[in-house]
Write a structure and sequence with these properties.
Chain lengths: 281, 307
């Protein structure tokens, strides 16, 4: 059995990974299909139905909010935005981190030392406050949120990729490629990058919940996604204002957000265990 | 040891400088000025305001002026709270946040270490499993979800504790904010302590101590506790940052007039100098506290000092 098939085999045998991954797939599916099936629209206000409690009748299983909007469709819409932001932001951090780490690890020596010293310095900064500063200073847009969160989360990825690249560089097949005159760029693309895939997947799974957390934190404070668009963090914020009379407005988005975060954390932990056990056999 | 501490201190200076440069540039890269949103003023008055706040000078000159102010502890005037300087606002609001955060940190360390050690000693028992499931949940649920849920349960439904800050007196109003702030850290510290305690308890020197007839309590107290605490100590840096961030949320939810609330208000009002000042203050605080943790680490673990 090759290392790669063994990786997938042990991944399949991990029950935590299967359950949390499956739950995430179900949530994503409902978030996409739900709003399409529902007769309600996430923007449509209805002042005859303000703050109705959840009920089966009328297809409003999550109730309505303080403007009479259907909370099921809004929550699903919020989940879509939250997951979208997290995935795109994670891809941004992945691109920066993998590129940075690969370059530092592959070149090595003094360049590596300087590049990693910079990462160490940035590590000590409380980035969340800089992200808030960005949100204050510039026009708040989805694009800015992607970039800001991505720019914060690349440090871990850079460190890990750099470590892997350093050890890969010394392996026989890379040495062989180098001796036969393969260009450095081609070595990176053909020999280094494919071998980084496993560790990158593991750490992306751990980056996504951090991005979700950051986005919903910003939206909760009113600095992220702006009305009438919504995200789970913005819905929790709206729920806090109505919790005395309409606790479902707080409980439903809060529970969904917690569930998504928990699934990603469990999935990431399980993936890391699988990956580590393969590496340290 | 002194050499080690001095080296760490010198290392913090570039980081702090980077903080100030980055934050300053971000604010000044903003399209438009800080007073754009208000009614249009005659150009002469606008020029006067710009001059009063030194906005007419070239950027490097503004930066030098700002930096020399920061070094003297002067973070400039607030753009929105017209009669106050940023330093005044921070000095007035921070003690409350410090009290809140300090209590949360102590609570988190105490309960987290106790629960984690207990779980490690009773490994794979029902109590251990329960502790770990609770702590995984605690890690996943963010402060801005925990805090409102606590209010809903203990203040709105059960009416045991006050939900807000103003109009309430005494210790009771501290209970919910401090617990909300501490819970995620309790979870994290418990998980870390358990892992590191299991690690240490299976090491050779602990086995030797047990072999010499020492009881479980004495082994933990005199042999296992100190090495098992090293990962907790290195987690203190991130924990401090997390509590600072959490305090922003908690102060907003409970209406506590601490620094976090000023920060959010400043951010929503686009009070550039206030937000800039608080970011620099928070960053300095975190960098300095990290420095203290680093030095403590060196005190406890002599292997670190030799690097």
């Amino acid at each position: 059995m090759s290392a790669r098939t063994r990786f997938w085999a042990s991944l399949r045998s991990s029950r935590t990974a299967a359950v949390s991954g499956g739950a995430l797939a179900v949530i994503a599916l409902i978030a996409i299909i739900g709003p399409l099936i529902s007769p309600h629209d996430y923007l449509q206000t209805d002042f005859s139905k303000i703050l109705h409690a959840p009920s089966i009748a009328n297809m409003q299983i999550f109730g309505t909010d303080d403007l009479g909007r259907d909370l099921f469709v809004r929550t699903m819409r919020g989940a879509q935005v939250t997951i979208l932001v997290a995935v795109v932001a994670s891809v941004v951090s992945l691109l920066i981190g993998v590129l940075y780490g690969m370059v530092a690890g592959f070149i090595g020596g003094r360049v590596d030392a300087v590049m990693m010293r910079l990462v160490d310095t940035l590590y000590a900064l409380p980035f969340i406050f800089f992200v808030i500063l960005l949100m204050v200073v510039f026009e708040r847009s989805l694009l800015l949120i992607f970039v800001a969160i991505g720019a914060v989360n690349w440090l871990d990825m850079a460190r890990i990729v750099r470590g892997q690249t350093l050890s890969l560089r010394e392996r026989e097949f890379v040495q062989a490629a180098r001796l036969t005159g393969v260009s450095p760029l081609r070595i990176i693309i053909r020999h280094i990058a494919p071998n980084l895939l496993g560790v990158v997947i593991v750490y992306v799974t751990l980056t996504i919940p951090q991005a979700i957390l950051l986005e919903s934190f910003l939206s909760f404070l009113g600095l992220g996604i702006q009305e009438p668009q919504t995200s789970l963090g913005a819905l929790v914020d709206a729920g806090v204002n109505q919790m005395e009379g309409a606790s479902w407005m707080l409980l439903i988005p809060a529970a969904l957000l917690a569930l998504i975060l928990m699934c990603f954390n469990f999935l990431g932990d399980a993936l890391r265990d699988v990956f580590d056990s393969r590496r340290f056999r | 040891m002194l050499r080690y501490a001095l080296l760490r201190l010198l290392g913090a200076i570039p980081t702090l400088l980077l903080v100030i440069v980055l934050a300053f540039l971000m604010v000044h890269a903003a399209p438009g000025g800080p007073f754009d949103a208000e009614r249009t003023l005659p150009p002469e008055i606008e020029a006067n305001i710009a001059r009063a706040y030194h906005l007419d000078e070239p950027l490097p000159a503004q930066f030098v002026r700002y930096l020399s102010g920061v070094l003297k502890g002067d973070l400039g005037p607030s753009y929105r709270y017209r009669d106050h300087t940023v330093s005044d606002l921070i000095a007035n609001a921070f003690p409350l946040s410090l009290k809140l955060g300090g209590m949360a940190m102590l609570l988190a360390l105490f309960i987290g270490i106790a629960a984690g050690s207990f779980a490690a000693l009773r490994r794979n028992s029902a109590i251990d499993r329960l502790t770990m499931v609770v702590s995984m949940t605690g890690i996943s649920v963010p402060v801005f979800v925990i805090a409102p849920l606590m209010v809903l349960l203990f203040a709105v439904k059960l009416r045991w504790l006050p939900a807000g800050w103003s109009g309430n007196e005494g210790v009771a109003r501290f209970v919910l904010p401090v617990i909300s702030l501490a819970l995620p850290q309790i979870a994290y510290i418990a998980k870390l302590t358990r892992a590191s305690m299991i690690d240490v308890l299976s090491s050779n020197f602990v086995r030797t101590a047990r072999g010499q007839g020492l009881g479980a309590y004495a082994v933990i107290r005199y042999h296992a506790l100190k090495p098992a605490m090293l990962p907790i100590l290195s987690y203190m840096g991130p924990a401090i940052a997390a509590i600072l961030t959490g305090s922003v949320v908690v102060e907003e939810v409970f209406g506590i007039p601490g620094l976090g609330q000023f920060f959010v208000r400043g951010a929503l009002n686009r009070d550039y100098t206030l937000v800039l000042g608080i970011v620099i203050f928070y960053a300095t605080l975190i960098v300095l506290l990290n420095l203290v943790v680093d030095i403590l680490y060196g005190v406890i673990d002599p292997r670190i000092r030799q690097r």
